[in-house]
Each structure stands twice: as C-alpha cells, then as structure tokens.
Fold:
Amino acid sequence: MVEQQAAPLNAVFHALADPTRRAILKRLAKGDSSIGELAAPFKMTFAGASKHIKALERAGLVRRTVKGRTHVCRLDPKPLAKAHDWLRYYEQFWSARLDLLRQLLTNPDQDEGESDE
Structure:
C-alpha cells in the first residue's frame, strides 16, 4: 500500500531529476507550447522532446492535447504541490540546523551546549 502511495511522488521526483524536463516545465509555466516549441531551445528532435514530455505526463505534470498534427502541452502544477508538501516536512530539520549554524557563526566562542541566557 505504501508503494502505491509513493509511486506518484516518485514519478514527480524522477521527472524533476532531469534538467531538460525542469527547463520544459519552466517554459510551460509561461503558457501552453507545442512540442516543437519546447524542443527548439535544446536542438533536439520531436521524438527526443516527446520522450521528455511522456516522462512529465507520467508524473502528471503535463497535459497534452492534439490539434491536428500539433501536440500542445500545458503545465498541471498539482503534483508539484504534493512534492512541495513532502519537502516542507523536512524544512524544519534544515531550519534548525541553519539556526544553529547562524548562532555558531555569530558567537564562535560559545559552546553548543550553552544557551543564550
């Protein structure tokens, strides 16, 4: 059961792991684009771009519609919100570590166990 719940989030992180796919999402955040338009900055073929789009579709991050011979892609940000929620849980750990680092850098003579009082 845990595996089934993790699968969509795994697909999102897999899709985000590739810099080309992150760039495609950034472009789609500005508005819908055809696959040809998305491929152009990377000098890749339609087939190459389509493989990236398929990975983004599997993650639920992109919706594709076909208008004649043109494939138009649209960003669906909902899966990004789920990934953000997952990351936000760990933010508390980083915040505590960064607060401690700030304290140590501000007061280098103070031991870790001592308090400010």
